[in-house]
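Quick one, tokens below. Sequence please?
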């Protein structure tokens, strides 16, 4: 399960590279959620059997670590946005409608892994990889980050990407 101090190791990657994959590594995560007794429980898990590394490159491991961190940040943002709706906006969320709100929030976050890979060219662009490292580390330290704040943090760096 993700937490901001969790560090992946080469041995965590137990999957095998598909024959048709052009990538040396893949990090697969699952974001799980449940709603019980008016509380949302949400976690992000690293899926070892679906994740692989074909190289012992430290840079590749760091790139894949940021994918896992991004999954954890997304899970935390979902939880923060959900709680904002409940407590600040006073939206009545119950057993019948909670998943609608979680899915709606989550749909706004799914493209961040694609954005990360496109801007870093899957970790090949070292300059942009370092910028994403900064973005992710700042987000990991903000336990109450909301979607708008995460977007703003990425936009602050847009002019620095090459």
């Amino acid at each position: 399960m993700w937490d901001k101090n969790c560090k992946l190791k080469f041995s965590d990657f137990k999957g095998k590279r598909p024959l048709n994959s052009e990538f040396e590594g893949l990090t697969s995560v699952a974001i799980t959620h449940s709603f019980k007794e008016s509380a949302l429980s949400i976690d992000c898990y690293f899926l070892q059997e679906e994740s692989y590394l074909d190289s012992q490159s430290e840079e590749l491991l760091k790139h894949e670590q940021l994918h896992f961190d991004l999954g954890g940040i997304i899970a935390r943002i979902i939880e923060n946005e959900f709680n904002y709706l409940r407590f600040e906006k006073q939206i009545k969320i119950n057993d019948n409608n909670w998943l609608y709100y979680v899915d709606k929030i989550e749909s706004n976050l799914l493209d961040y892994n694609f954005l990360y890979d496109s801007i870093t060219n899957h970790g090949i662009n070292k300059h942009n990889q370092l910028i994403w490292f900064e973005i992710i580390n700042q987000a990991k330290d903000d336990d109450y980050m909301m979607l708008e704040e995460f977007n703003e943090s990425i936009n602050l760096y847009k002019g620095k990407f090459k």
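Residues 58-88 form the longest helix (31 residues). The chain has a mean pLDDT of 95.
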